[in-house]
Amino acid sequence: MSFGRAFVPVAELGTLDRLRAAAMRIDWVPDLGSRIGSLEWWRGAATCAALCATAVVLAPPIAYPILGSAPAPLSGSDRDEARAQAIAPLAWGADTGRHMAANDLVVPLAEAPERPIEERTATIGHGDSLGAVLQRAGLSERDAQDAVVLIAGAVPLGDLTAGKQIPMTLGRRPNKTVARPLEALALRARFDLELSLKRVGDTLVLSRQVIAIDNTPLRIQGLVGSSLYRSARAAGIPAKVVESYIRAINSKFAIGQIGSGDRYDFVIDRKRAATGETQIGNLLFAGLDHGSKKTQLVQWNDGTWYEATGQAERQGTFTMPVSMARVTSSFGMRFHPLLGFTRMHKGIDIGTPWGTPIHAPADGTIVYAGRSGGYGNYIKMAHGGNIVTCYGHLSRFASRSGQRVSRGQIIGYSGNSGLSTGPHLHWEVLRGGVAVNPRGFSFSSIATLSGEQLRAFKAKVAGLLAVKPGA
Q1: In 342-437, where do the E strands start and end?
Q2: CATH number for the segment(s) 218-310
Q3: What is the pLDDT of residues 229-262, one digit of tens each?
Q4: Superfamily grouping for domain 327-445
Q5: Under a CB-based contact definition with an 8 Å cutoff, are residues 378 and 457 in contact?
Q6: Residue 170 to residue 184: CA distance in whole angstroms
Q7: Quick one: which H or E segment has residue 182?
Q8: In this predicted structure, what is the pLDDT of residue 1?
Q9: Do you know which CDD domains this protein is assigned to (predicted)?
Q10: Confidence of residue 170 (pLDDT cuts 50, 70, 90)
Q11: pTM, whole model, 2 decimals?
């Protein structure tokens, strides 16, 4: 028994079979790109020529086109029907498509109907009143006045800052000649309070929603790097807070001394509302690790930046007490024009027109304001650190004894009282009771907190240092 095809010797095959077997062993389509000129190549070229000749012989004649049938062009109603279902390019007019005429169910309108309600948003601008803003948004004068009265009863209208947005809903009106009625209004009056107005019948009703606020400060620390300002801004600290930090640190040493390896420490007032908003406030703590020196400054209630120990060094210069100043007599020995002999002139005389306002050159307290011999009307003001300034020959006073004044505040008016040859201001500066030249005078004093203020200050410092960075 045998499996598969039986083996047949070549000698037993017929002549035709032997030729077929021999032809199958020949490669009739060799690669014409290789062995060019060989017997196999010429055999392949002959095969290619034979195939091309066969294709030419069997192909239809080129001179005679192939006939086909074309549909007859449409006309009349058939053309219109086909065009109505076609899509024409815009360049051809695009006037295709089927249109249906209106039937009896279609009623023509005299005018387009209005929306039943409208959602609008009003924005308070600089110098805007709330009533004007609401009327500009489309409310009637009566609705605007009613809304202003209700809101004013909840919060002072002055607390509504510019840029605040007021979303509102206006209802349907009987005709286009009257304003739409106010249906609802929402107003974020304060960070912790939201007001809403809603119409109930013909009356607007106010409701208050108190928003829970978290007052945990924000603490941010980082490396100074190539620029303190850029590094702090890249950490997300507002520009105004960075500027406050630089001013505070600059009171201790020059900003140019800060190195790239130093580390800054900010504690900023922050409020977080339960609704998700965050409000960044003022700088509370300014810290800097400068090499082995650690600087920690905290701003107290008087606006002064104190060290963590409760001390603050104040440095500065006095500004001229009158504008457009012209010094007529300098500090030092001089011949007195009225007494007729040479003596020490303890201040400088500034020529001014009668009644010129006199401004405080720095913060201080009025020690005395009254008559004082040859000085005439006289003011004496203490600035701390055993520094006192005096002002003579005034025409009248704008301050009183014991009053606390700020830099630039008017304390009196120049005149010609006392021993004086004409309207002017006599200005003296005393340090420790000794007269010094007021021109170019610079001062330095140390303020120290004590008692209850010191205890409250240290408690504030401890609370700020306990804030975790990034919390």
Answers
A1: 342-345, 347-351, 357-359, 364-371, 377-384, 387-397, 404-405, 410-414, 424-431, 434-436
A2: 3.10.450.350
A3: 999 999 999 999 999 998 888 877 767 788 889 9
A4: Glucose Permease (Domain IIA) (2.70.70.10)
A5: no
A6: 7
A7: strand 182-190
A8: 43
A9: M23_peptidase
A10: very high
A11: 0.51
